[in-house]
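Risk mitigation, structural track. In case the binding assays with NDP fail to produce interpretable data, a predicted complex structure has been prepared as a fallback.
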Amino acid sequence: VLVPFAGLVLAFCFYSVREDFKPEMLQGKRVIITGASTGIGEQMAYHLARMGSHILITARTEAKLQKVVVRCLELGAASAQYVSGSMEDMAFAKRVVKEAEELLGGLDMLILNHVGSSYFGYFNRDIEHVQKLLDINFLSYVTMTVSALPMLKGSGGSIIVVSSMAGKVGFPFVAPYSATKFALDGFFSSLRQEFVMQNINVSITLCILGLIDTESAMKAASKVYMVSPAPKEECALEIIKGGAFRQREVYYQYTSTKIPLLIRDWAPGLLDYLIRRNYNLESIKEN
Ligand code: NDP
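Fallback model:
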C-alpha cells in the first residue's frame, strides 16, 4: 500500500516544483512541424512563431502552407519556411529532414502531427486503406525520426508525437486510425526506453488528446460523437510545453483523457460502455 502512495506523493511533488513555462525556452530553437497547414499543427506554428523559433512546416497543400509561413513571420518567427509533399512517400519524409539540415543547420524539436484522412464509420473492410493510413500516420513518423536522430542527438533535442485517446483505448468508427495511433505508442514508448538505456539525450513526448475543435474533426464527428471539443489553440500550446519540459506524455484535457484512462485497466468493460454512450448512432451508416 505504501509504495503506490509514495509514488503518488513523489508525482505530486514533481508537478508542484516544476518550473513555470517560459516562451524563451523555445526562442531560436529549430523546429519541424508536420501537418501544419491546418488544425493543431497550424496553431503550434503560430505559438512557436510568437516564441521566436526557426520553423519549418510541411503538409501537402502549398497554398495553405504559404499563408501559414506569412503569418508566422508576422508573429515574430526567427525564420519560417515550408516544404510541401505527401507523407505517403517515405522519400518525401526523409527530404523534409534533409531540408531542415540545409535550411536550419540542425534541429532541436521534431513535431510529428500530420494525419491522413480516413472515414468515420463502421470498419469497411478496406485493407488497402488501413495500409495507406499506416504509411502516413505511422511509418512516415518512424522514417522522419530515423533521419532526424543524428541532428537531435547533436542538439539534445526532442521528438513530439501527437496521438489520441483512440491510441490508448478502443473507440468505435475509427478502427484504421486507432490502429495507427496504437502503433505510435508501441514504437515510441519502446524507443524511449532504449534511449534511456543508451544514454541518448533525446526526449520523446507522446501526446494523448481528446476531441479538439479543428475543422476536420468537427466535420467528421460533431453529429455523431456527443462530446464538447476543446480549443485547438490551447491544445497546441500544451503540446509545445510538454515537449519543452521533455515530458514523457501529455494528456489534454485531463477530464477526457487521464481520468477515463484510470479505469481502463481495472474495469475495461465499464470504460467501453461509457465511451459507447457518447455516440448518436442515427447518423452512422452500416457497411
Ligand atoms: P487536421 O486534419 O486539421 O490536419 C491534418 C494535417 O495533416 C493537415 O496539415 C494536412 O494538410 C496534413 N496531411 C493530411 N494528409 C497528409 C499527407 N498524406 N501527407 C502530409 N500531410 C498530410 O488534423 P488535426 O489538427 O485535427 O489533428 C492533428 C493531430 O492531432 C493528428 O495527429 C490527430 O490524429 C491528432 N488528434 C486530433 C484530434 C481532434 O479532435 N482534432 C483528437 C485526437 C488526436 P494537407 O491536407 O495540406 O496535406
